[in-house]
Amino acid sequence: MIDHTVRTHRSAESLPREDQFAWKLAAVATDDVPVTPEVADMVINRVIDNAAVAAASLTRRPVGSARDQALAHPGKPGAAVFGVEGRYSPEWAAWANGVAVRELDYHDTFLAADYSHPGDNIPPILAVAQHTGRTGADLLRGIAAGYEIQVNLVRGICLHEHKIDHIAHLGPSVAGGLGALLGLETETVYQAIGQALHTTTTTRQSRKGEISSWKAYAPAFAGKAAIEAVDRVMRGEGSPSPIYEGEDGFIAWLLSGAGTEYTVPLPAPGEAKQSILDTYTKEHSAEYQSQALIDLARRLGPRVGEFRKIERIVIHTSHHTHFVIGSGAGDPQKYDPQASRETLDHSIPYIFAVALQDGAWHHERSYDRARATRPDTVDLWQKITTVEDPEWTRRYHAPEPSFGGRVEIALSDGTLLSDEIAVADAHPAGARPFAREQYIAKFRTLADGVIAAADQDRFLDTVTRLGELDAAEVSGIALPAGLDAVPTSKGIF
């Protein structure tokens, strides 16, 4: 890996395209190195994982609305929209499928200087692969490139401290992944990355206060915008540049400004793209920084005994966990029994209370309105706070990061229970790391009652041969849930 320094430049300074950061990202995307067997296996795992969580969300309202919008845009050759027959314009198929993947906050993650769900690269790259007749090997190459770019942007550039949503790293990564998929020239991908960044820089209000369905839509928006950017650039159109370094550009006015340098690692020419191997998925349908704490709650529950004896619970954790999903966010909605599901899955006080009482976590039952308003749960929930612990913040940013914390439970009889956990059980360094068996089990569980067993078998058989698939087989990657291809909501389209 090579560390690249990125900073602002005055317009009067000469900054050749080859020295611009967007060009360096594009060069990574267009470096046609072989996909290693380990990376290919992990790409397959994540395609299965995306399909699992999409299947579980197909009948939810936000997913239905996005699908209805896609239904108004049929296309030839087109791409598949999960749950329905027919072929649709690829940017709209990516939109619908991206919302389905993201709706339950239940797929893969990478946390470093910033946050990300790199599996969000898959729906737009798959849709374009289907529309353009690409093979499974092409698809593997595109997905590996998308992951590589997003993960390394997340390693080096913090967005959240400036209240910028993390899709500002996703737009460029999808553009790069599409460039790799389609075998485009570096110049074309460079322009598309610039357009994608320019159009997908949005605020973090989508993940603050009363969180709405836009949390699921935001990554799909980035994927759709990146497809459109690549299409425009392939027709000869350009981008604002230098998009990262410009005097009125991304770093200058939206991040830390002139005088600040960011360091982003990228593969050297000819070096394999392997950053997907550093990412991890979720066993539980909740924000990633709650995964380990759910596992710890399940472990602590039997030790507590009678939950009515709890006087207070304090979770000592990292800066990110405290300020994003903990009491450090200052969001009263995180303690509101009437809050949206999207808000509850970003509330560690709520999540820890339910996991402690139930000894389990479920993507639907744990968020049910009756569950969220149960009096004993509400009472316990209000007793839970988080504090930032410098040691856990240090461990969060360590080379082998920890995403957990230490929990102290004070009981009315004076007993103080304490325990800690570094990473989730399903994490590669955890007690039960996810492997192909667990990805398939997650898919089977979430697809049960939604996708017929024979169709589940066909999907898994196809996807597990991803690198060998011809264009027709790639076109057949879909979730045939048998939903009517008739919109049930009304809008402009």
From TrEMBL:
Residues 284-466 form the MmgE/PrpD C-terminal domain. InterPro entries: MmgE/PrpD_sf (IPR036148), MmgE/PrpD_sf_1 (IPR042183), MmgE/PrpD_sf_2 (IPR042188), MmgE_PrpD (IPR005656), MmgE_PrpD_C (IPR045337), MmgE_PrpD_N (IPR045336). Its EC number is 4.2.1.79. It is an enzyme of class 4 (lyase). SUPFAM superfamilies: 2-methylcitrate dehydratase PrpD (SSF103378). Residues 20-261 form the MmgE/PrpD N-terminal domain. It comes from the Bacteria. Pfam families: MmgE_PrpD_C, MmgE_PrpD_N. Keywords: Lyase. It catalyses: (2S,3S)-2-methylcitrate = 2-methyl-cis-aconitate + H2O. The keyword Lyase applies. GO terms for molecular function: 2-methylcitrate dehydratase activity. PANTHER family: 2-METHYLCITRATE DEHYDRATASE, 2-METHYLCITRATE DEHYDRATASE-RELATED. Monomer. Belongs to the PrpD family. This is 2-methylcitrate dehydratase. It comes from Amycolatopsis azurea DSM 43854.
